[in-house]
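User: Can you help me understand a structure? I only have the sequence.
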Amino acid sequence: MKVAVIIGGSAGIGQAAAAAVARQEYGVILTYRSHPEGADEVVAAIAAEGGTAVALPLDVGESASFPAFAEQVRAVLAETWQTDRIDALVNNAGVGEVAMLGEITDEHYDKLNRVLLKGPLFLTQALLPLVADGAAIVNTTSSSTHATGATPGYSVYAAMKGGLVVLTRYLAKELAVRGIRVNSVSPGVTRTRLGGDAFEKYPELIAPQAARTALGRIGEPADVGDVIAFLVTDQARWITGQDIEVSGGWDL
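Assistant: Let's start by predicting it. Here is the structure, written out as tokens:
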């Protein structure tokens, strides 16, 4: 059985991706940091549909923990699926904080860097010995990296996500020798827990964002999760090094 590791799989896009990948008959290892109840929900939902999932804690902002995490993954692979290989890795952990130029601090910059760029880089490095030849890696980027997605206050966030777009392309080149495909998905405005559940707390924000989207609504986690699931499967076997916008036509 194939197994996927979904980083940041306890809520939002990661939760939807975990469920969608499981429907493609993958076993799933998903991670959580501060939302264990969400991870439990995903594991239970996958089990209810006849699949198998295991949740592990991980703070993507703490790269020193990655070797130990890789050993945990190795142990779970052997115990749960009797394998030593990962067939898909989804780097989806996120953090969102707004700061205008005059408000940016070292702490703000470093926090976003640790989670959004440094984390995916060094976590992929740590897990690479477990990644099977011919596997797929998907990174979650952002439409904020595009000219049409520029919003004041998101300069550091977008810069880190832009770095991840470039990293995706380079990893696709480096890992092609092993047949490993590396792509990214670039969500537009999506209803997630980022920003402190902003859309839940401030529903008046939804209509203006929907008005900027060609398809007339904001995104739902499953809109992006289904694309991630497609990219990890053999149906996307001839796609690599791409950043695929999944935004419903943001600012068209």
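Now, to help you interpret it: The CA atoms of residues 188 and 247 lie 4 Å apart. The chain has a mean pLDDT of 94. Let me know which part you'd like to focus on.
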